[in-house]
Amino acid sequence: MSKTLFWAAIAVLICAVIATPAVGQGCDCENSPSSICSGQGFRITLVAFEIDQDAGTSNWDYQVCNETGLGTGCDAPKDLSHIDLSLPGLGECLTASQQIVLSQLSGFDNALLACGVDDEDPSCDLFGDTGDFVAKCDIALGNLDPGECVTMRLSIAGEQPTLGAGAAMTVTKAGPECVGNCLLGPACESCIEDPQEEECMTRTPGFWGTHPAITSLFLPVTVCGEDLSTVAAGSCDSATEAMCVSGGRESRGNPVYAQLVRQLTAAKLNLAATAANGGECGDEIELLIAECEALCGANKKTISESGCVEALAAFNESLDTLGTTPPPFDRPGPAQPAQCREANGNGLVIGTGSCNN
Model pTM? Predict the structure, then answer.
């Protein structure tokens, strides 16, 4: 899996639902929970957010619900005609050229949303030309009846590892009245503290396998006793061969071993890149790598039951803690998958089979 999941459930635990601030009051980490009862009576919740390092996008899913009769504390809502997300300060780490799209993921009865993105919101005119990104939707047909919800997805192009859940502003309109609330949303500075104190940079096997020019900067690495010193496919000392495995001839015999090699290679590249940029991923991950690498000669059952593949994948997919993305990772350029495609399914598995010295 290539997506880094930023746990909205954690945000729910650490951000209590609070009173609605007056429109114009600044939103910050103290008054921006992950779920609110809007001034119009609708429950608005940031239910999930993720960054896909390989695709270079981040997605933020918001659910808007009419909770009438459910006993959850929201007032009986009015007819919802408009909702927007003002994202103050987002322009500090993103540019206007990085496309933002707001779309409807799920519907209700016959209600539909018409969504768009601009830096002002004439429907409510609470902010005017703020210079910030505003994503907004109008109810084009129907309305939220009691017990119904609609889910919207805010997508931002251009991977930004430092982007996190921070203070945003949501505005809803029912009839002539617009009401603003603070709510967690994409921001340059996250309100959620990362429990990992070390400054560590991580990329997935998919990233390393399709960015050979960057990968070659941090070779050689030794995985399962093999020195990986090239990114060319078709070689038993190739990091690309180690990471570009799935199905085909490589699934025969011990496919779990091939996945272990894949995640170990990415983890070691992450340690090398972190060290090259003055960071430190910590003793725990180094111990995990050592313990998992000791299983390189083990059978399928032993590797599977160890949980090593999953644990290493979780590390490789975790959020950067370096703070500032260093070059060349800040501008990695488009993926170059040619060597990865050639390696995928060609039967070479590092340290075993035709690559067993």
Answer: 0.50
Q: How far is CA 34 from CA 7, 170, 192, 208, in A?
A: 11, 11, 11, 33
pLDDT digits (tens, 9 = 90+) for 20-69: 333 334 677 777 788 888 777 788 888 777 766 666 678 888 888 887 76
Q: Are 279 and 201 in contact (CB under 8 A)?
A: yes
Q: CA-CA distances (angstroms) from residue 14 to 8, 32, 33? A: 10, 11, 8
Q: How far apart are CA 284 and CA 292, in angstroms?
A: 12
Distance CA 135, CA 61 (A): 13
Q: What is the DSSP string of 95-158?
A: -TTS-EEEEEEE-BTTBEEEEEEES--TTT-SSSS-SSEEEEEEEEE----TT-EEEEEEEEES
Query: Side chain identity at 319, as an amino acid letter?
Result: L
